[in-house]
Amino acid sequence: MLRRNSACTWSRSTCIRISCRTRPTTPIGAVFANAGVTFNHTILRSTLEEWQATLNVNVIGVVNRIQAFVPTLQAQSTPSVFCATASVGGLVRGDGGAAAYQASKHAVVALSESLSFELARRDPQLRVHVLCPCIVASGLGRTSVTNEGAPAVNSTPMPSRPPNLSPTASRCVPSTTPGRCST
């Protein structure tokens, strides 16, 4: 069974709403929803627990941040940004491993685009972006294993560039159309 390292996780909306009450009274310029877990397994080798943990952190965590912070950003008259971190894995086809991670990051891209369209006309001072980094050096695979003593599941070295990634997919392209999310 996967255990959480702390009582307040990305997927618990009550923790997020409590933390929102303690934020400063000055306007918020930007909110970044940046967290992720991954288990490098194929669909058939993944456990339901791994899927649930991945979707809870990677998708529900972003939804919780949206619901907790966007109303405040909407109420402000000053320009602000809500940025969710997805992955280049949310823009390309599956690669035979880390299916839950890629599915969750596709969901983050779709959530961000939907939010951008929802807010474009009514709240033009609030811009929505989605950050889709390519492979970066991080401890994501190592820190995703939350059981003490559990074997690392992301022990296969990652290629420097996924074989199905076009050269332009790893660049950020700013949005020029209102209501269109930046990817």
Features of the shown structure:
single chain, 183 residues, alpha/beta, Rossmann fold, three-stranded parallel β-sheet, 4 helices, disordered N terminus, disordered C terminus
Notes on the structure:
This protein has 183 residues and is of the alpha/beta class. The chain has a single domain, classed as 3-Layer(aba) Sandwich (Rossmann fold). The protein has four helices and three strands; from the N terminus they run H-E-H-E-H-E-H. It has a three-stranded parallel β-sheet with strand order 1-2-3, covered by helices on one side. Helix 2 runs parallel beside helix 3. The longest helix is centred in the middle third of the chain and has 28 residues.
Structural class of the secondary elements?
Answer: alpha/beta
H/E topology pattern: HEHEHEH
Largest sheet: 3 strands, parallel
Examine the secondary-structure arrangement and name the CATH architecture. Answer: 3-Layer(aba) Sandwich
Classified in CATH, the superfamily is NAD(P)-binding Rossmann-like Domain
Q: Give the beta-strand count.
A: 3
Strand composition percent: 5-15%
Count up the helices: 4
**Outline type:** elongated
Mean pLDDT: 74
CATH class: Alpha Beta
Uncertain parts: 1-8, 146-183
Q: In what order do the strands lie side by side in the largest sheet?
A: 1-2-3
- Alpha-carbon distance between the two ends: 35 Å
Domains, number: 1
